[in-house]
Every structure is written in C-alpha cells, then in structure tokens.
TrEMBL record:
Protein name listed in UniProt: Erythromycin esterase-like protein
Highest taxon above the source species: Bacteria
Organism, scientific name: Rufibacter quisquiliarum
GO terms of biological process kind: response to antibiotic
InterPro entries in UniProt: Emycin_Estase (IPR007815), Hydrolase/PRTase-associated (IPR052036), UCP036794_erythomycin (IPR014622)
C-alpha cells in the first residue's frame, strides 16, 4: 500500500496554525495531546496553540494531566494571588511527585509566565490553570483541613473523620489499597460524608468562590482517589476508567463554575485525549476523557488534536520511580502512522485534518500509532509502545513533528512516599 496521497498542511511556524484555528471553529473544548510526557516540541506547540485560543477565541482556562493541589498553586500565581516576589520556579517546585518533569520544566515555566503577563494586563481575559488528575489523596485532605482551620461545624468534623481514617496507612496509597482489598472496612463512607458536608456548608455561606471551589474539588479528589486506589489493586481497566471519569467530572465542574460562555483547553497524553472508541482500548472496556467529552457535549463542541514524531530524544525513566534520563527515541516502526508521515513530503513537519482524511480508505483502518510513557525502554519498540488507531476518528487533527528533542526539566526533589505504578506502559 502507498500513502503518498495523504493531504496535509505544512507546519513550520505559528502562522501555519491558521488552518487549525479555522478548523477548531466554535468548539468549546479543545484537547491537545502528546505522544510522550517528555518531549519539548509537544509542550512548545501546545503553548503556541493555547496562546492563540486565548487571544483570538476567548478561552477561559487550561486544565492539565496534573494534581489538583499543585496546579491550583499555579492558578493562584497566574492570577496574582501569591505573595510578592514569588517566582515561577517557586511555584513549579510544588510538582515533586514522580514523574516530576511532567510539569516541573522550563517549557511549562514559559507558559505560566505568559499566562501571568496576560492576566496582569488590564481589560483582558483572566485565564485559569487547573489539574484534572486524581492521585493527590493526602495532599487534598491536607488542603481541606487547612481551609477549614478557622471554621467549625459538621464539615470540619467530617474532614477530621476522613483524615483519621487514612492515618494508619502512613500516607501510602498502595498500603491503603492493599489493606482494604480483602476486607469490607475502608474509608469510602468518611470521604463521601466529608464531600457532602463541605458542599452543603459552602452553598449555605459563599464568600470566596474560587477558594470554595478549591476546597470542594479537593474533597472530590479524595472521594475518587479512594476509589481509584482500591480499583487499582484489583487490576483490570476499572482504575483507568475511575481516573478518566474523574477528569471528565472535573472538566464539567470547571466549565460550570466559569459560566455558560467558558471555554476549556486540555493538555493530556494522546491516550486520554484521543477518543478511546477508535483504539484497542475499547475492547478492554476502557474509556477516556476525549470519548466522554464528545459523548457529553457533542462532537461539534469538542476538538481533539493528537501529536506524534518519528525520532529524537525524550525524558523518561527506566522503571517506576527511577531517576529521569534523556533517552533516544529510535525511528518509528515500519508501517506505523509515524513511519508513513516521515516518508510523506520529505520528512517535513505536518498538520493533518481528519475531515480531509476520512475519504481515504487506507487510514480508515487501525494503524500502529506510537505512545511513549513516563516509563520507557527504546529497545522495546519492536514489541510495544504502539496503539492500534483509526486516526481520522480518534482525532480531529494531528500534528506531526519529524524529529523532536527531550524537554528541559527542573531538578526537583521527589517526595519519599510515592503512589504505586499508576500509568500504563504506553501513557
């Protein structure tokens, strides 16, 4: 088979994004993927797209595949709510859970600085920055306790009961998950009660809407994280679904919080952004936020953009919790989506629009599409790291970058207690 007739647009500079912005149209949610968590160009191009969406289409916030408490510190910084003299590097040091490089890097620092400058300008759209993920069980509980320090009543009592329930497990999610896997007693009732009481209290006496939303979201994280860790120990795809359903619930809450005219930019891995129904994830009963958003808001209101590259370098770890290192990304497997695009048009960077691909029979079948996770072994390229994908259905657009470089991480000290292995090998 030959794929030399695939239509594409050049992708050399920011002006080449005009066709993408036009294709996005009036979509309310734009999801920007990545084929790894450690590639500089993915962050740089997502930043360029995000800036234009904010400036030209009035997008309200960016939500990323990161922990809510840490990302909320970034939100406070870009909104000018941190103490005077706080630098972007001070804020990004909060991202000290492995893999620290995902958000603790210079590429993200450039985006955060721009967001703050944008928000500091008078008469401009004030843009927020939030985390969608579910891992921060203890951090979220601690944030709730701090928020409630000067309050009293049932919400405080419920929070203390929830915190007390988790104390025996020494801040170790895996220990908690193992402990409750084979017994009926767990902390689900305590965290649900805390969420209900906190929500009731804030609805009765609202004062600082963003702080109240933060406290309630931390309670929701605690509820869903508790479910996530239990599901993870039992195995299968259920824990993945708990996680992406939490991300979708968080996105929906953010859109409602910011009002009917709000618009969201999402930064996550392709395995979350690209509609799971058009990959082998569907056979395993797995869903993701890209699929859920299309189903909930309508396909015309959700725009999914995937990313990929042929070769280069990446930041990843040899195993879960291992030191990060710069690794070689070998040329893509022969016959893969990335291999086709490398051989198309002399190996140039390209932007492909799905509406222009859907009439071509060859790409309406499952094609191997590379996915690099935070744990990566370049020597396994022949055996893994590829997701069978119907490209023009999984995404609305695809940005192909022929050769890419590893991102530039901060050197951050990792927390001693880490969650267990949570990411699949290709995410």
């Amino acid at each position: 088979m030959t794929y030399s007739n695939l239509p594409y647009h050049r992708l050399e500079n920011k002006a080449d994004l005009d066709v993408l912005l036009e294709d996005i149209g009036e979509a309310r949610v734009v999801m920007l993927g990545e084929a790894s968590h450690g590639t500089s160009e993915y962050y740089a191009w997502r930043t360029a797209i995000s800036k234009r969406l904010i400036e030209e289409k009035g997008f309200t916030f960016i939500a990323v595949e990161g922990d809510w408490p840490d990302c909320f510190q970034v939100n406070k910084f870009v909104r000018g709510l941190c103490k005077p003299g706080t630098k972007v590097s001070d804020v990004l040091k909060h991202f000290n859970r492995w893999p620290t490089w995902m958000w603790g890097n210079w590429e993200v620092a450039a985006l955060v600085e721009w967001l703050k400058e944008n928000n500091d300008r008078p008469n401009t759209n004030k843009v927020g920055f939030y985390g969608l993920d579910v891992y921060s069980l203890w951090d979220s509980l601690q944030r709730i306790m701090k928020y409630l320090e000067k309050k009293d009543g049932q919400a405080v009592k419920a929070a203390k009961e929830a915190f007390k329930c988790f104390e025996p497990y020494s801040n170790d999610p895996q220990e908690y998950a193992r402990a409750v896997a084979y017994v009926s007693e767990d902390c689900e009732e305590e965290v649900l009660t805390m969420l209900q009481e906190l929500g009731k209290k804030e609805r009765e006496a609202p004062s600082n809407p963003e702080a109240e939303f933060d406290a309630e979201q931390n309670a929701l994280v605690a509820v869903n994280a508790e479910r996530y860790y239990k599901a993870m120990i039992m195995g299968g795809g259920s824990s993945w679904n708990v996680r992406d359903e939490h991300m979708m619930e968080t996105l929906d809450r953010l859109l409602k919080f910011h009002g009917p005219d709000s618009k969201a930019i999402i930064w996550e891995h392709n395995t979350h952004v690209g509609d799971a129904r058009f990959t082998d994830m569907a056979r395993a009963g797995m869903v993701n936020i890209g699929q859920l958003a299309r189903e909930q808001y309508g396909r015309e209101n959700v725009y999914l953009a995937g990313f990929g590259s042929y070769e280069g370098s990446v930041i990843a770890g040899d195993s879960w919790g291992a030191p990060m290192k710069k690794m070689e990304v070998p040329p893509a497997r022969q016959g893969s989506w990335e291999d086709w695009l490398h051989n198309l048009g002399g190996g140039s960077d390209k932007l492909l629009l799905s509406r222009e691909l859907r009439e071509i029979d060859e790409v309406r079948q499952q094609i191997a599409h590379r996915a690099i996770g935070v744990v990566y072994d370049p020597n396994r390229e022949k055996y893994g790291n590829y997701v069978p994908t119907i490209i023009p259905e999984r995404y609305d657009a695809f940005l192909y970058l022929d050769e890419t470089e590893a991102l530039r991480p901060f050197i951050l000290k990792t927390k001693e207690k880490e969650p267990p292995e949570l990411y699949p090998a290709n995410e």
